[in-house]
Amino acid sequence: MFHGLREYVRSVFQRDPAAHSALEVLILYPGVQALALHRVSHRLWRWKLRWLARALSQFGRWLTGIEIHPGASIGKRFFIDHGMGVVIGETAEIGDDCTLYHGVTLGGTTWRKEKRHPTLGNSVVIGAGAKVLGPIMVGDGARIGSNSVVVKDVPSGATVVGIPGRVVTPRSDDETRQREALARKLGFDAYGQTRDMPDPVAHAIDLMLDHMHRVDGKMKALASALEKAGIRVDLEIPELDVENLEKAGGSGAPKED
To answer: Which CATH number is correct for 2-168, 3.60.20.10, 2.160.10.10, 2.40.30.20, 3.20.20.70?
Structure first.
């Protein structure tokens, strides 16, 4: 028992740099309190003491602001950081080493008495305010971004963002180099922000650059064929006049002193 408790406290220290002592974690962390009460209420639920189990879970909700149905199944080293507003439904299943932040909902999408809540694999992280809905599977090591709404299965190791949630596909090194080279050729830098940030506008620009890269390749192949036929074709793309574009775009903006 004490070995498991020490292991759990160590796992909290690894995920929360604000933790300073084991006593602080055990007594002052609402996520830890809610989990401890859930362990008891879940056992009561399995013993068919349903009213008592629900009463204990409601007490935990009042005490911590975290609502965990006693029927939910939760694995080892589960951590809820901050915690306020977290809701975990009756048929939810959570694997080992998962982390949830405040405002997360593991909810159902039907009123039928069946498996209607999500199943999380091991080491899943769900950001603040995210909603994971329905009897879907979130694979091991998946990450769900803050305020996302996820209603479909998430592959292992994937990152999901947006409403509805979409898997963000990591860029390969070759793709990144191609996009940067084409952007420089056009006189435009689409990578002024952090590249790991899954911004939908940047993603749309990426798709445009990919398409233009393929068109550029086709044009070069066509020019090569024409040159072999004795026809010279100039395919050099002029750079954009960025200064004039900035002046045109910022004509209504106040000038700095």
So the answer is: 2.160.10.10
**Burial (CB count <10 Å: 0-12, 13-18, 19+), residue 61:** middle
Please list the pLDDT of the chain residue by residue as tens digits (257 residues): 566 778 888 888 888 888 888 888 888 889 999 999 999 999 999 999 999 999 999 999 999 999 999 999 999 999 999 889 999 999 999 999 999 999 999 999 888 888 999 999 999 999 999 999 999 999 999 999 889 999 999 988 888 888 888 887 655 556 556 655 655 555 444 433 344 545 556 666 767 777 777 887 788 888 888 888 888 777 666 665 556 655 555 544 444 44
Neighbouring residues of 119: CB distance < 8 A, sequence distance ≥ 6: 92, 93, 94, 135, 136, 137, 138
Say what the pTM is: 0.65
For 83-104, b where at least 16 C-beta lie within 10 A, e where not — what string? beebbbbbbbbbbbbbbbbbbb
The CATH 2.160.10.10 portion of the chain extends over 2-168
